[in-house]
Amino acid sequence: MRFSHLSLRLSLFSFFLFLFSFSPLLASEPFQPLRTDNPPVIDGKLNDPIWQSAPVITGFKTWRPDWAKDLSEKTDVLMVYDSENLYFAFRCFDREPQKIKASVTSRDKMFSDDWICINLDSFGDQQSLYGFYVNPLGIQGDSRATGTNEDKSFDAVWYSAGKITSDGYVIEVQIPVKSIRFSEKNPVTMGVIFERHISRRSEAGTYPPLDPAKGYAWLTQMHPMIYHDIKPFVLLEILPALTYSHREKANQGRLVNEEQKGEFGITVKYGITQDLILDATLNPDFSQVEADAGQVDVNLRYNLFYPEKRPFFLEGSEQFLVTGSPNLIYTRTIVNPLIAAKVTGKIAEKQSIASLYAMDELYDTTPGGRYAYVGIVRFKQALSGDGYIAGMGAVRETKPHVNGMGGIDGLIRLTQSSRLAFQGLLSHTGDDPTSSTERGHKYELTYDYEERSLRYGGAFGRISDNFVAEMGYVPRPGIMYVEGYVNPRFYPSSELVRRVSIFTGSRQYKDLPSGIWENGYDLSISALVGPTVSVSAFAAVQTEVFAGKEFNTNTVQGSLSSQATRDLYVGLSAQHGNAIYYSANPYGGYGHRGTLSIRYQPWDNLSAEYTLTFNDFSRSSDSKLIYEYTISRLRTTYQFNKYLFFRGIVEYNNYRKRMLTDLLASFTYIPGTVMHLGYGSLYERIRWEESRYVPTDRFLETKRGLFFKASYLWRL
């Protein structure tokens, strides 16, 4: 109780400290890109006359593996703009151009290559940023980031080109102002950090250099960049989409038609202002083109978590993130919406809103009807630096059942190296909100400090056992916890060991239903060895409570990963430890877990990736093997050019005796203008014998599906 009172006082003190303080603007000279009426052609060549007059930025310093060192290769950045576009060019010199790692791959699949990035805080308010990544062949990746999370599933419409030269590589970038949000001012002040990654040295650097005393607080280190007379616009995008699917399912050993349907849907994006956007969709296709990778699905205490991949929900998703609980809003709980709408963006200079509504058609209907109605709203007030305070509310209703959740969360920048985060949430659940409502709560207070050589922090929180968020992912309610950690880092002056990180922490969890405390003590060490080899070792002395019983779950783990050559990546991890068999009558045991990942790229446009996942469990009392679970997955992709690829997946689940095949041809001109054709099958080691399926050594095709989608983005 003393800890709780102390934490509350610290939170209140920090909050009032913020109210009576402010962070001064950067004192350094802002960047001034050159305005032009003759914009460059985006072709990966710097032969346009305007580039000869553009201001040049150089002097990159590292932030990985160590800080504030000269980047091993020189980098120049050039900046121009016109009334409708921002243009950037990079001259990335390299004394060994034959070792530059680059691939012709699909969007967002180039992060293991060499790349450059434009980290753009378009509002200049230190609250969020766009990341525009490009590899040496012009392949794009993009993201949206806040102070606590980077979401690389975000996609925007922009243009890039790159070429490898005799002394390095050159990249040109065009960012239409319609593709970003910014303040309605003249001039417009944005923030920027330019970044370069050199794969074969595990090296990354920026300009302006990141301050080692501020650690990874990117948003508070943005350099101001000024644009005059950017053309105001009214954003209007119309995205019609046509989908067709045909599915077959085995019936008495033979495939028969299960479903065949074609649908037309439309999505509209409208700019209420330049920085407040309405998205609305009718009869959308919310299926996934990319299949989820298989996961071990036996002996689970919590439901499996699958990342969101559907474009409508991905855009602006960072605005729904609750501090300390990034999955409290989990949009994959919205499965088959008939209509959906979002409003996201700024309503004032330091105030933003994010809201979502969806009418979801249920596959399993309830007595209350066929639909679930989901509404979410989040309001955010920016504070000094990257700090903010936010309020949110969310409701999911399947008449007469209703679940609601709401509360506040926030982040306060205490010093340049430390911050305080907090959240307080309430939930209510019931069939009659006025009388039979069950109420729950969730709160947390977190402190962390980080700079070049040291990170430490702690947290205190509680989730009541009746806290329910049906539109979120909360794996374990019914706990109270106190955590603390210290993470020193060392940077030896050695070419062999380049960075060492030691982590030690303590976790004390109270299982509220039983009143039993769990104890956890962690120790890990990781190191960057040579140019690209990362190794780590981890040990935990811990207990876990399940069904009112305490179990020993001590664990040791090791991992190794390396970009062994330009063409070959290898990652390996192995774990051994005590474990629990989760059931109505749980018991203790021990098990092993392991993963192997191999990625091979013999040519720039051909890659193959193999992953192996292994898990087993044996009972302690008699050492009997209870289960052994293995998933093998091979994914091969041929990228014909930056727009078109062909991909095949074969996945075998040894435990389920199932094999999945998945073929896809995909053309993406820009996000939204796409065409996908997919075909997949499921095979099982069974056969139909008389009136039932029985095991066999041969495969039987039990499911088959064909999928087609075409859409075209109209930007008016």
What does this structure look like?
With 716 residues, the chain is mainly beta. Among the domains are: 31-227, Immunoglobulin-like (Sandwich), CATH 2.60.40.1190; 479-636. It contains 3 helices and 40 strands. The strands form 3 sheets. It has a 24-stranded antiparallel beta barrel. Strands 3, 6, 7, 8, 9, 12, 13 and 14 form an 8-stranded antiparallel beta sheet that branches. Strands 1, 2, 4, 5, 10 and 11 form a 6-stranded mixed beta sheet that branches. Strand 36 and strand 37 (658-670) form a beta hairpin. The chain is globular. It starts with a helix and ends with a strand.
The secondary-structure class comes to: mainly beta
Task: Determine the number of helices (DSSP H or I, runs of at least 4 residues).
Answer: 3
Name the CATH architecture of the domain at 31-227. Sandwich
Q: Which radius of gyration do the C-alpha atoms yield?
A: 27 Å
Question: Kindly, what is the distance between the CA atoms of the first and last residues, rounded to a whole number of angstroms?
Answer: 59 Å
